[in-house]
Amino acid sequence: MKKRGYIEDSEELRAAVADLKEKSSKNREASASEPEAKEEDTAEEAAVEEAVDDAGYDDEDPGYDEAEAEAPEDEAYRDDEDAEYYDEEYYEDEEAEAEAEEEYYDEEDEPQHRRLKPSETFEKTLRDTNPMSDVAKAVVESEKKSKEYRRQRKQEFEEAKSKPKRRDRKKKGSKADDAVICLEHVTKYYEHKPAPALNDVNIKIKKGEFVFIVGESGSGKSTLIRLLLRELKPSSGTVTVNGFQLDRMNRWKVPKLRRSMGVVFQDFRLLKDRNVYDNVAFAQRIVEASSREMKKNVPEILGKVGLASKYRAKTDELSGGEQQRVALARALVNKPSILLADEPTGNLDPKNTIEIMDLLEQINKEGTTVVVVTHNDKIVNDMHHRVITIKKGVVVSDREEGNYEDED
Fold it and tell me: What is the pLDDT at residue 57?
């Protein structure tokens, strides 16, 4: 009696088993390149193995495949779902690479996953080269020098940023900082005259000073004023006014220089075809002041010089003292930092002279630097300001609170 589930051996059965085994072998080869095997092939393969087991095949059965029984260990891995990912040589290479990477890091100083910069990798490769070639040594040395140069330039840049600018390094209140007029070794020759009008003159006038420049006629006082206005250039030496170096100044900058100064002349130099208001407003138009500014500034300065009630009067209707007041108002309306007065009282009587000098004193107290060229010994002695005396083009004395008699 046959056991239950026993299948009788026959040629047909053997042929069917051989076909199934051949198909199963092909499916296994295909599954090695394609990770996801089809469910049908798996089912058929399982059916073939079950049929073979039920048929009771062993080593002596004709259908037994000895080569298949002795399949290498790797084949067993391929029967598993993850066997396709197994590659012994690949994992050995990965382990060797991981060990090599550990040598690049220092656990105390570097992060565990820090990667070397390209320059560091290059240097390490060169260091590991034994012996190092001359070319490699030169490359390493060049790279070090380049790094050091960049570091020095960066340091110099940071130091330059932290340093104060030159104008900030000057001590506040120093003579060089406060000097608004500076003449250094100034000499001026006129054509056809062998003797110089000014000879090696050195003068410094600080901001806010009141200075008298005195001397006899022909001593060089007027030449000095013309140099300060840039009507003349010195034959030698340097002249600096309000930061402008006049001996090197281009002519197109001269108007800008003169707008920073106010000038009062002995002969007034007023516009005779215009009234008092228009003469003063003319200085505002030169600096392109607006109508609103002129309407504010002109009456204000006329009130300061005592001519507010005569703003409509023509200049030829005024006395000499009043005309000089108009000239003074015109010089001050643009609020200059320097006021140059060339013989401002030369054509005035003593009363008007005192009034004009009182105005100049008041203007100086408001912060304007005042330079007065005069030969009037009385006002010099009465006001007790700095006195610079010029004789035959040479500065013979420069005294604080001097007087005219002392300079003779």
Answer: 47
In 222-297, the DSSP E strands lie at 236-241, 244-245, 261-264
Question: ∠ CA(176), CA(181), CA(186), 5° rounding?
Answer: 100
| Distance in angstroms (rounded) separating the CA atoms of residues 221 and 197 | 9
The enclosing H or E element of 278 equals helix 276-286
Cα–Cα distance, 210 to 363 (Å, whole number)? 10
Element (H, E) at 187: strand 179-188
Name the DSSP class of 316: G
- Output the pLDDT for position 85: 47
Residue-wise DSSP of 290-308? -HHHHHHHHHHHHHHTT-G
pLDDT tens, residue by residue, 187-229 = 999 988 889 999 999 999 999 999 999 998 889 998 999 999 9
Which pLDDT belongs to residue 107?
A: 44
Confidence check: pLDDT of 103 > 80: no
Which of 121, 116, 118, 122 is CA-nearest to residue 139?
122
Determine the Cα–Cα distance for residues 199 and 399; give it in Å rounded to an integer.
19
Q: How many Å apart are CA 258 and CA 304, to the nearest integer?
A: 23
> In this structure, are strands 386-391 and 210-214 parallel, antiparallel, or unpaired?
parallel
Share of the chain above pLDDT 90, in %: 38
Q: Which pair of tokens denotes residue 157? A: 């840049």
Cα distance between residue 30 and residue 341, in whole Å: 113
* Residue for token pair 């002392």: 406
Radius of gyration of the chain, Cα coordinates, nearest whole angstrom: 54
Q: What is the pLDDT of residues 7-25, one digit of tens each?
A: 555 676 677 777 777 777 7
Coil, strand or helix at 321: helix
SS3 59: coil
Spatial CB neighbours of 283, under 8 Å, sequence gap ≥ 6? 330, 331, 333, 334
225 Cβ neighbours under 8 A, 6+ residues apart = 340, 342, 373
Q: What residues form DSSP beta bridges with 244?
A: 241
**Alpha-carbon span 365 to 220, nearest angstrom:** 28
pLDDT top residue among 312 and 402 = 312
